[in-house]
Known about the structure:
Structural class: mainly alpha
Order of helices and strands: HHHHHHHHHHHHHHHHHHHHHH
Number of domains: 2
Low-confidence stretches: 252-267, 410-415
Mean pLDDT: 83
CATH superfamily of the largest domain: Tetratricopeptide repeat domain
Distance between the termini: 40 Å
Number of helices: 22
Shape: globular
Strand content: under 5%
Largest sheet: none
Amino acid sequence: MLFLAHDKLSLSLTAAVKALGFPDLVAKDRARLYTTIAICFHQLIDFPSGRQVMEEYAWPEAERSNDPQTIVALSSRCVGMLHSYACWSADIPCVSTVGAEKVKLPPPAELVARARRYLAICDSYLARVPASDRSWALGQKGLLLSLAEGWPRARAIFDEALAYAANFPRERVAALTSAGVAARIAKEWQLARSYFEQAKALPAAQCAYNQRVLAYELSLVYQALGDFESALAEMRSFSHLQTQKVRLATQWTSDPSSKRRYGEGFDLSTVKGLVFERLQPAVLKRAVAYVETNLDKRLMLSDVARQSSVSTRTLQNLFKVHHGVAVSEFIRERRMQRANDMLIQGRLSVSEISGRIGYSRLANFSRDYRRRFGRTPSSVLDASVGARRRYDQYRIEDPIRSAQANGHYRNGSAS
């Protein structure tokens, strides 16, 4: 994390991957290491890998940890990452996607719905963590709800986040910045400027990361308010800091002891291969791939082992070590997650979804789903269909098309 704070992403990524090999790690340690890896990929503009590590590796470890601080930290991190993806999908400017080549993304409403799952979990643990952790989590909640439901819904949440951050300088910078981003997306330009200028003036905001984010955001806000001289100055500052970030991201250490510890150099594709090989050996990858493509069928342990070319005992051990559960539990969890994703998308009936994940009896599916998520499949589907209609009518599509049409984000004019 020390390397990450100084934009030395290559060293941070390499150190985290190396640390994963330590034999005495517990679930919350692995969760934090996977999170560091996900952030590194995200900042190196490899968003698909960042999302995969965060949702498929870091988050399950957080759940297994049963540690409230770890669960709150990682669920809110998932909310923040999915918020960035939703903005990217909706063509809303976002500092984390500057310079990234656009890839095919799910629609904003689907990404927001996924983020709400993590938000609900985060909310259920929030009262059990310190004030500084609450501040960060509430900032991510405010960002998501402002995008999905509008600025008025989020403002009180940001006020609460700032109250919790009063005695924590770094958390106060984060809360002010999150509030500013939400206000800027909502075109509350004066409010956004106030939040960002307050954050920029704080001593805790002087690190390169905070200065880069604030310069980018202020350049958009000043442009929208017609202060083109200030906007140009902030954009120049951002360009300088962004160039410096790119240089530092792959800069290697010259210290001999560090070279002995981390190696002689850095290559992203090589490290990426090591990351996913460390996270999941080849045999396990084959097993998981077979399960994922056959969730609609009756899956037996012997079938999965045969497809993976290992004994059933070896396969059970691999799943216990890398996923923390037996094969049957893993299959059931993947079925539940696949069903939940389809329910959130709201395009199929409960009966159709049940069949697509291998259930021959609807009652058994409903029982397992309710046991896993605490809600019936039909209630989730009804809520998702209603939410999709609201998004289509209110926030995600029409206002964005309107903003693009009248140039709010294209030429920065204030409303």
